[in-house]
Design goal:
Largest sheet: 10 strands, mixed
Structural class: alpha/beta
Pfam family, one: CBM_2
Number of domains: 2
GO molecular function, one term: hydrolase activity, hydrolyzing O-glycosyl compounds
Shape: globular
Protein name: CBM2 domain-containing protein
Keywords: Hydrolase, Signal
Strand content: 15-25%
CATH architecture of the largest domain: 3-Layer(aba) Sandwich
Radius of gyration: 21 Å
InterPro entries: AB_hydrolase_fold (IPR029058), CBD2 (IPR001919), CBM2/CBM3_carb-bd_dom_sf (IPR008965), CBM2_carb-bd_dom_sf (IPR012291), Esterase_phb (IPR010126), Plant_Biomass_Hydrol_Est (IPR050955)
């Protein structure tokens, strides 16, 4: 039974990442994924891969740790998710750890992994962060974590065991910190995986607090995603994570806000109603063990605050008369839109960048008359070839940008004749 559940976990995560990899269009870039060795204390022989975009957001760029699923690798998570393309856009550094033990799952169950003073995978990952701070001038005050499946579990563990290192995290199809705890060396907890480890919010919160006794500083914010049809790390783990992190933050389990960002999604926020509330949960109706899907990474980045300051102008970017530059800015420079295409025979993915002009805007509508054969879209509402903001990306600070995307059949839209209207 344990092997079959682990196999399902692996296949579910790997299948969706393969699907996403086919639809992600990354901008052309000279930056590449590189392996770093001898990065410091590494008790479990993890490997470290690093992505530094061509242009970083500031002299001290923020850092994101992106943690893979079982049987995965850092390079596979790099290729199969949107985090590197978002790093290109917003100028943060991404660390991709790789587990090297049999099965390539991360240790989220041993006493050594669940303690701030432990000597398992979390200690090695924190060594990677400290290496980037020391050797790539990363901002130690802006360090974040995300991950899928085994990586989603590790996100919970990292935020619990190293609240002094991580500012926020986004866990896709994970479980609460210490839910997977074992003492028999098996590394697998069927009770937790099956959604049968149900405790009070206080009990869950105490497990986080006991991971670093005596810690009195700020606690990281947590965003968690889960599908209601997940039969691998079953759906009750979603609610248990919310219990845990609301208790850690001293919050009520009654949401401050509930909305529906997309059909079938229910988002709840606790302790605040803004994009960066202390705790946020997104429940996906009918979705199994197959996250993150296209577009969800951008919501995670917004929650962590990694989209609040982008890189400076690229000296090699096209001149104002060249294809690929923002088209049809509105009077006063309210907003502009540019389209980037990933085209193949019979289909395309279009990524649209919406940029605010000299003033902050609180909503936008983009018209792309040449868009055709559209089959799906993300991070936007759509009416034909007119696209509008959703609740979490309407506000764009002056000079900053957000992205939305859509996929279609046939030939993708041109970058002329498009308009952006601010509201």
């Amino acid at each position: 039974m344990r092997k079959s559940i682990r196999a399902a976990l692996t296949l579910g995560a790997a299948a969706v990442l393969a699907t996403v990899a086919l639809t992600i269009a990354r901008p052309a870039s000279a930056a590449s994924l590189v392996e770093v060795t001898n990065f410091g204390t590494n008790p479990t022989n993890l490997r470290m891969h690093l992505y530094v975009p061509d242009r970083v957001a500031s002299p001290r760029p923020p850092i994101l740790v992106a943690v893979h699923y079982c049987t995965g690798t850092g390079p596979a998570f790099f290729s199969g998710t949107q985090f590197a393309s978002l790093a290109d856009q917003y100028g943060f550094i991404v660390i991709y750890p790789s587990a090297t033990r049999s099965g390539q799952c991360f240790d989220v169950s041993s006493p050594a992994a669940l303690s701030h003073s432990g000597n398992s995978d979390p200690a090695g990952i924190v060594s990677m962060v400290r290496w980037v701070v020391a050797n790539r001038n990363g901002d130690a005050s802006r360090v974040y974590a995300t991950g899928a499946s085994s990586g989603g579990m590790m996100t919970n563990v990292l935020l619990a065991t190293y609240p002094d290192v991580f500012k926020a995290g986004a866990a896709f199809m994970g479980v609460p910190h210490a839910c997977f705890a074992t003492t028999d060396g098996s590394s697998w907890n069927s009770q937790c995986a099956n959604g049968q480890r149900i405790m009070t919010a206080q009990q869950w919160g105490d497990l986080v607090r006991s991971a670093y006794p005596g810690y009195t500083g700020a606690r990281p914010r947590m965003q968690t995603w889960h599908g209601t049809a997940d039969t691998t790390l079953q759906y009750p783990n979603f609610g248990e994570q919310i219990k845990q992190w609301t208790n850690v933050h001293g919050l009520s389990q009654t949401p401050s806000m509930t909305d529906t960002p997309q059909s079938g999604w229910t988002r709840t926020r606790y302790g605040g109603t803004g994009v960066q509330a202390p705790v946020e949960g997104i429940s996906l109706q009918g979705v199994g063990h197959n996250l993150p899907l296209s577009g969800q990474a951008a919501m995670a980045i917004a929650f962590m605050g990694l989209n609040t300051s982008g890189p400076g102008p690229d000296p090699s970017s096209p001149s104002p008369s060249s294809p690929g530059t923002p088209s049809n800015p509105q009077p006063g420079g309210a907003c502009s839109a540019s389209v980037s295409l990933n085209q193949w025979t019979g289909g395309y993915v279009a990524t649209v960048t919406v940029t605010a002009g000299s003033s902050t805007i609180n909503g936008w509508t983009v018209s792309i008359p040449s868009a055709s054969g559209i089959t799906n879209a993300w991070n936007t509402t759509r009416n034909g070839t007119s696209f509008g903001n959703v609740s979490y990306n309407g506000r764009i600070n002056a000079g900053q940008s957000i992205q939305f995307g859509f996929q279609g059949t046939g030939t993708g839209p041109s970058n002329s004749g498009n308009t952006c209207t601010a509201s």
